[in-house]
Amino acid sequence: MEFSMQLDLSGILLGLIGLVYILLIPLTFRTRHAKNQGLGFYAAFVIFLLAVTIFQLLLRFNTPLSLIRADIAARFPLYTAFILSVFLFQTTFTFLQKKFLPWVWWLVAAFILGIGILISENINGLVPEQVMLGANILRRDLAGSLLLTAAWVFFSTAAFLTTLVTRQRSVHPLHRNRYILWLVGLSFCILGIYLSTEIFLSVPVGEIVILLAVVMLGYSLFTHNLPDIKHILKNSLSLLISILLSILVYTAFLIFFQSVFYHFETTLQGFIQAVFIAAVFALLINPLLGKAQKVLNNLILKSNQDAEYIISDYTKSISNIIDLSRLAEVVTGTIVRGLNIHQARLFLVSEIDESMVLSAVESQTGDALPAAISISTNSPLADYWRYEHRPLAQYDLDLLPYFRSMTEAESTALKSLSIDLYVPISIQNRLIGILGLGAKKSRDRYFVKELALLETLAEQTAISLENARLYENLKLRSAENETLNRELTSANRDLSRLDKAKSDFLNIASHELRTPLTQIIGYNDIVENMASTNELTPANSRQMTEGVRKAALRLEEIVNTMFDVSRLDIGSLELSMAPVSVLMLVNGAVAKWKDALENRKLTLIISPELKDLPRINADGKRMIQVFSHLIQNAIKFTPDGGQVWVYGQNFIDHQDDKKFVEIIVADSGIGIDPEELEYIFEKFYRLGDVMLHSTGETKFKGAGPGLGLTICRGIIEAHGGRVWAESSGYDEEWFPGSKFHVLIPINLEIK
To answer: CB-based contacts of 649: which residues, under 8 Å, 6+ apart?
Structure first.
């Protein structure tokens, strides 16, 4: 009869447990307080527990389920424990927002469960009664139980350790508190599963513990503002120590009082003495206990900040600061010291192209700055900061459904800052900045008093920040004006130089054009006069026609040069690309100047290594024109008896991983002023005094219209190459010389 009563009590308790599960299911589906998909797994978890509870109830009544063999019914809790551990594993990983493949794990769990049932129940006699495990022999049913138990331990331990590690790595105290509650719920659930599986009691203690664990896990999922477990424990410890200290002090006083007044006589004098001692004790004990309570709070609760002192010191520190970097240093430094936190950042807020941009202010300490963060003006976070003007924790951003529509990029950028609390800084309901505070060194959350203190500090900061921003904008505008002035000065200088170059060009070009025209007209007049007097002989005719031909060729060269510059300006220069040898190009360019080299007694040295350079894909005629200009320049600016070198090498641009052929034309001439190296490739620019102009193509310091190097650069760049000059300076006594480098890309397909 007693056994029957225990069964009845067990059935009643199971029925109540099932009723609680039934109430939890609709509550789970109605909950929308968190951005956590773990609610789905939690609901399935509760439904499964309800099904298990109903199954256990049916086993106690006269139903077909009560006819299940006793050994199978005995193994049923183990199967249930394994499935519950899988639910715990899945729910925990989703709760922690860990990336994993849930259905893969369910398939693995189903496979393990199937193997375990196959071994334990020996379906169709497929498994022998004894199983070899290394050198040991196990019974079939024991082997299946060991497999499922090991899997249960794995999934339960994985859920527990993952939560523990995540809590240790989290820098946000509110998240850490949430993980503590989840760890407690996990611990109770694992304990309940163990009790229901391994310890058979007349009362379903394991099921009751599991129910408590499920309620605790659900509370962690459903509730946003969870009780601070760490703070509750600290307050409890502080209160307990205070009570024990008070008991100790009062006990000591009573012992002292009894020892002094052991032979107390009820006289007026004795009564007055007793009252005096009690008054002295009362005056001393309360301040001492208050001081002890304050010391305990400092040691246990770490609540040693004085709000009034912090505000007063803060106001004095920032009152006269207009430099933005200095303001950021003082603001963040005061808050870091006052609240004992790891870091603080001051962000400026500006709206650019429908985006709210957060830019960290660089302090004078020189700390590395995080990248600017752009938040859409339509983001719920922008609306909150714009209208609420209240501190916001990263915990709220992670969990509140109000912020669910934030983009992944915005959430990731904010998390990368390792900021625990954002305090908006507003002036006249206009958001101008954000105070970003890191976690406390005590790992506590920010309490209500501290949030109120931070709001006050933000109000104090607003005016100083606005003044500093105005001052910074003024400095920026001043710097921009200085830059514009420098650019205008440089532009005016360049325009003056260009205007002078154009004037020089007109003078030189008119001279260059008139000279061959004058020669043609002069020779024509001579021929006409000699013909009229019958003095024109065949020898004279050849001499005159040769002079006319040279003048016409010179005129054609000048006109073609001008046409080439025009084509380069409008980008209409056509190239006929073909594989060509570098040595062939150089020889083709040198052939035109052999007489000039001999007349000027100049030595031209062509490196034999040119023949080993790879062929390039280029317009041969145009490249000969380039090297012809460069060699002509070397001849003109090298004194008689000097030297000109042409050599080359392979060149690799490691930045772009491209291969080039580099050809250098060097001379022992008068050199180039380093300040003029960047101008010599511009149109109309020429070295030296234009009044010393000489029409000779190869005379020392002779000059043309100032277009040769411009054409060289245009042709080389059209081939995808580069050209530049090097020289240590201009000197007509020491002749430092100059070098012109030509880079032409190699077409790797050409053999």
So the answer is: 609, 613, 661, 662
